[in-house]
Design a protein that fits this description.
The protein is of the alpha/beta class. The chain has two domains: about 1-150, no CATH class; about 150-260, no CATH class. It contains 13 helices and seven strands. The protein has a five-stranded mixed beta sheet with strand order 1-2-3-4-7. Helix 1 packs across helix 11 (about 245-280) and helix 11 (about 245-280) packs parallel to helix 13. The chain starts with a helix and ends with a helix.
Length: about 325
């Protein structure tokens, strides 16, 4: 099951990469960005990713993004992006990268590029290779990594970049830096980062998406959230713009809750399948279809009943 930290950060990261995928690739993986024909667009394949990986024995959840793109030579290619969102080293991560890569190659028979966006707080954890060997036979897979923490001393560069994804990196670094300091420090950084949005000249839709990410990842207590929204209103009054109206703020808050609900729904489906596999072995197709169409509450009840039966059997 995912940790609380996964549950907190998964939805905003999934959304922001979808919204700013070209900017994300340009800032984090420029060599690959230069090889993609962006004029042909790109297609998110999250549902396909879920289906392919459903029975993979990789229980630690990460933000997994799969995009179909086109190379400048005209060929289709798959871009696999893992965002590892946790505060400590995970020895299983390189293996997950390998498992996901070979499953995608096997399923699509297309070239796959594997990238890891490391958002953790561990300076020394920098996985880039999976290797295993036995009796002269071996497998080795390398993937490209981008470590957000490398930019903690390059804030000036982030703040003056014209790439929207620089604001995403700055906001996440601020979240890491303000975990164990007075909450007022987080409030000040949140206001400062948001204020700079209005000086960039970006489109309203882009500003709102970045605002959503900042508002989520730099969450504040209710009293400071109210103060923060007052500050944003003052900024908009000073700038004589209204990018984020009161109605939109209400919509954003609802969107955040919907994102949390969606994350919980996916996690419960996966956990229920794991429980049923443990009990039944092979799960009938009709049962899988029922799980897919079940509501969040139905899944919760089903899981609770199975766990209760398991506890009773072990007595």
């Amino acid at each position: 099951m995912a940790t609380n930290q996964h549950a907190q950060y998964d939805p905003p990261w999934k959304n922001i990469i979808n919204q700013f995928f070209p900017s994300f690739m340009e800032y984090c993986f420029p060599l690959a960005f230069a090889e993609i024909d962006w004029g042909k667009g790109y297609v998110p394949l999250d549902k396909e990713m879920t289906q392919i990986m459903r029975d993979a024995k990789t229980h630690n959840r990460v933000v997994d993004k799969l995009m179909k793109v086109y190379t400048k030579s005209g060929e289709e290619a798959w871009v696999l992006v893992h965002c590892e969102i946790q505060g400590q080293r995970d020895v299983e991560f390189p293996k997950r990268m390998f498992v996901y890569r070979y499953r995608l190659i096997d399923f699509y028979a297309k070239p796959v590029a594997s990238f890891a966006l490391l958002t953790d707080a561990n300076e020394n954890w920098r996985p880039s290779t999976y290797e295993e060997s036995l009796w002269g036979s071996s497998t080795k897979m390398e993937f490209v990594t981008f470590k957000l923490l490398d930019f903690k001393n390059r804030l000036f560069q982030l703040q003056h970049s014209t790439n929207p994804f620089s604001t995403v990196i700055e906001a996440h670094l601020a979240a890491l830096a303000t975990k164990k300091v007075p909450i007022e420090n987080r409030f000040e950084q949140k206001v400062s980062i948001t204020r700079r949005l209005y000086d960039k000249g970006w489109k309203k839709a882009d500003i709102i998406n970045l605002y959503l990410f900042i508002d989520w990842i730099l969450a504040l207590p209710k009293e400071l959230e109210l103060k923060y929204h007052e500050e944003i209103s003052q900024i908009e009054e000073e700038k004589k713009v209204e990018y984020i109206s009161t109605a939109e703020r209400i919509g954003i808050e609802k969107g955040i809750q919907q994102g949390i609900d969606q994350t919980q729904h996916e996690e419960r489906k996966i956990f229920l399948i794991l429980l049923l596999k443990k009990e039944m072995g092979k799960i009938p197709q009709e049962t899988l279809q029922k799980i897919e169409s079940s509501s969040n509450e139905e899944l919760k009840t089903w899981i609770t009943d199975l766990l209760s039966e398991e506890a009773s059997a072990s007595r």
